[in-house]
Design goal:
alpha+beta; 38 strands; disordered N terminus
């Protein structure tokens, strides 16, 4: 076990040094070499499973199995990587069934069956030269018919992909599956009832996103394995439903925001009127997540009478137990502030969790004793808390007389202080999505900055999740306006509070957060530098050239296209680059289909022509988000190097220089 507390050169007194120049043990090398991403959990009998993505193996996703005696084994050997490309973002890439693992393989997107001790066996056909590429996700095992039931996405040529729910035989010849449900643009969460007689699923169609409007259906299986007439259970134009789940006694539960908050509901399908829906535990709290990826489970059944769940209030996630008979919620004392991917089985539950001072981990909970055990940590580092900045939840006034939220991290490093009569530079982070939220668990990517003398504000701007549907919908028609205002007002708030240097305000973000970043730099003069990771600069290009899942996302965020083309042009930073007056660095994956490289490259060209300092760092083989260790390191260190050149401080790290166009000596 490596530990950062074992420092042979510990200093007995903090040294006064310029902010940004502090030496930190939290290096980019340590972050990428000792950190994995935990992205899925499962239980079968007494065995525990989790999926981990390893940057050190070029982003390969590996399924681990742990037996009750603590032995741990990898299920998928090289070259298999468990990941799917449905909706481009994937999720729900494996399930357990009948002692086997069913998984999607990243390289060919085929569905495989894996029995322990055997080689994976393909269940679906390879993509023919002239045929569609089939992708598979979010499966459920139909035990009575020995088949995988899940979402299939068919890609062919320039046409929009077709999404359906299909059944794939676990035995016999390879196939593309039997279509069970079709007709909507999108499907998710097909779930077979415990008695094998019914299937539940959710669906939605353009221009809606799953957090705008979804519908929940149930249908009976016919003798031949097809489905009978579908019955609408819940959902509609102003209701978002996620995670339909059958209880052990065959009742259908789901999460709905019909009363502004994502709460847990139950459907009584046996009622004389065809079924009634009732809230299980109504609260002003969110029991669900925006469905960017499949299988984001926020609750699970330990028994028919007991639900293990997580919910968020004010940006913090809590762990709870719900009595399904009384509806009473018991909050379980926990050291964690981020909890997801809950599974339960009898007297134990597992989930992925993290806190402000501990890395994300797979955690097992004994429901009898309430004892929690870490099964797998995302990092093998033990970090001295004197190097860690603890988050402060902040709410601050913003435009329109409203209030926005964020998480503030002050600079912290036990070896240094900022007693040179200066205030620290501030890095404002705008999260992606934009329908998402920042996290309060330990983020070494943030601690990388704070341990070097930067302050960080992670903004949950209007449009973020976790604060109810009304707050989430404030961004409708206002993307590029209200999110940007909140970042600007947050930076001003900390400046006026005396926490940071108003002349050294920076901002960065990835994807949608990159768009917010570029808007803030283009349409406001508060920030003095910024960094965009695969960010949007041209809304018109995004509307005309993106993938199916988000093809109509901008209809609600900006306006229907092309009817609102003038608004798209008005809010596109690329069309107003003449207003930019500060340096920007761009990091871009060259295989990104969500935000194609031409968006970053067009912005770089404009900035070069304008004579502004600009840097462009492209990555071969990367898609939307960086998975390779060397690229994660390069983007983190490159941004620090860029700010050092802009603000004139010397970094302690040995960083390979970034080529910066138009940067003149002593210009800044």
């Amino acid at each position: 076990m490596k530990t950062l507390t074992e420092q042979t050169d510990r200093m007995t007194h903090a040294i006064a040094a310029a902010y940004g120049s502090w030496t930190s043990p939290i290096t980019a090398d340590l972050i990428v070499a000792n950190t994995i991403s935990l992205i899925g959990t499962a239980l079968e009998g007494d065995d525990t499973y989790w999926l981990e993505m390893r940057p050190s193996e070029e982003g390969r996703s590996v399924l681990l199995k742990q037996t009750p005696d603590g032995r741990c084994a990898e299920m998928n050997a090289l070259p298999y990587s468990i990941r799917n490309g449905v909706h481009e973002y994937g999720g729900g890439s494996f399930i357990l069934g009948d002692g086997k693992v069913f998984f999607s393989n990243n390289a060919d997107q085929r569905l495989y069956c894996l029995a322990e001790g055997e080689s994976p066996r393909a269940l679906t056909t390879a993509t023919p030269e002239a045929g569609p590429e089939m992708r598979y996700a979010d499966g459920n095992f139909d035990k009575s018919r020995d088949r995988w039931v899940g979402v299939r996405e068919a890609h062919q040529g320039e046409d929009e992909p077709t999404n359906t729910i299909v059944a794939v035989n676990a035995q016999g010849e390879e196939s593309v599956g039997q279509v069970l449900v079709e007709g909507h643009d999108f499907y998710a969460a097909p779930r077979v009832s415990p008695n094998g007689q019914q299937l539940a699923w959710i669906c939605w169609s353009h221009p809606n996103m799953p957090w705008d409007s979804t519908e929940l259906y149930v249908a009976d299986f016919q003798a031949d394995g097809s489905l009978g007439e579908a019955k609408l259970v819940a959902g509609g134009p102003t209701e978002s439903i996620v995670q339909p789940t059958w209880s052990p006694d065959g009742r259908l539960y789901f999460v709905s925001d019909r009363t502004d908050w994502w709460n847990i509901y139950r459907w009584d399908g046996e009622a004389a009127n065809g079924g009634t829906v009732e809230a299980v535990c109504p609260m002003a709290a969110e029991f669900g997540f925006p469905q960017w990826v499949f299988c984001m489970d926020s609750f699970a059944f330990a028994s028919a009478e007991r639900i293990v769940c997580t919910y968020t209030q004010g940006g913090i996630w809590f762990l709870g137990l719900i009595d399904t008979v009384s509806g009473e919620l018991e909050t379980i004392t926990s050291p964690y502030t981020e909890i997801s991917d809950i599974q339960a089985n009898g007297d134990r539950a597992i989930f992925i969790a993290g806190s402000a001072i501990s890395p994300t981990a797979v955690v097992q909970l004994n429901l009898k004793t309430r004892q929690m055990t870490v099964l797998r940590s995302s990092s093998d580092l033990e970090i001295d808390p004197d190097y860690l900045s603890e988050p402060e939840l902040v709410s601050f006034p913003t435009s329109g007389g409203e209030v926005s939220h964020g998480i503030y991290y002050a600079p912290k490093n036990r070896d240094f202080d900022g007693s040179l009569g200066e205030q620290p530079p501030l890095l404002v982070k705008s999260h992606g999505g934009p329908t998402a939220a920042t996290r309060s668990s330990l983020n070494l990517g943030i601690q990388f900055w704070t341990s070097r003398g930067f302050a960080v504000l992670d903004v949950n701007y209007r449009g973020s999740t976790g604060y109810g549907r009304a707050y989430r919908e404030r961004l409708k028609g206002n993307w590029g306006v209200l999110d940007v205002d909140d970042c600007v007002y947050g930076a001003k708030y900390l400046t006026e509070r005396g926490d940071v240097d108003g002349d050294r305000l920076t901002i960065d973000g990835g994807s949608a957060g990159g768009y917010t970043t570029l808007c803030a730099l283009t349409f406001h003069s508060v920030f003095k530098a910024g960094a965009s990771r695969y960010g949007v600069s041209d809304l018109t290009a995004l509307a005309e050239d993106t993938h199916k899942f988000e093809a109509r996302y901008l209809d609600s965020l900006v306006g229907p296209y092309p009817a609102s083309k003038a608004v798209y042009e008005q809010r596109s930073p690329i069309n107003h680059a003449q207003h930019l007056s500060c340096p920007v660095i761009f990091f871009q994956g060259l295989e990104d289909r969500v935000v194609p490289p031409n968006q970053a490259e067009a912005m770089v060209d404009v900035l070069k022509d304008k004579g502004l300092p600009v840097a462009y760092v492209p990555f071969e083989g990367e898609q939307h988000g960086f998975r390779k260790a060397e690229n994660i390191k390069r983007s983190l260190e490159g941004e620090l190097f860029f700010y050092a050149q802009v603000f004139g401080f010397k970094v302690a790290d040995a960083i390979e220089p970034i080529e910066i166009a138009n940067l003149k000596a002593k210009q800044f």
